[in-house]
Amino acid sequence: MARRSESSELSFVDSLKSDVRREFYEDHKPIAIVMILIVFLLPFVGLSIMGLLGVALAVMVSALAYCLTPYVWLKLWA
Description:
Elements: H1 12-15, H2 18-27, H3 29-50, H4 52-77
Helix pairs in contact: 3-4
């Protein structure tokens, strides 16, 4: 797959595709590490603050963050 050189090429729908997300996280290792921490730790934070409802909300927030970070990052800083 060709590398995306301009952020204007990346549409919102394209950013939701798994190959685009994988390419983004392979190119941005520090962001990938932060996302791993968020995805695994946020549900525990939700559990300690709000119980099972907090876990459910934290899982949804971390999934949204994982999927939307490539789009937001490339639109703001690329």
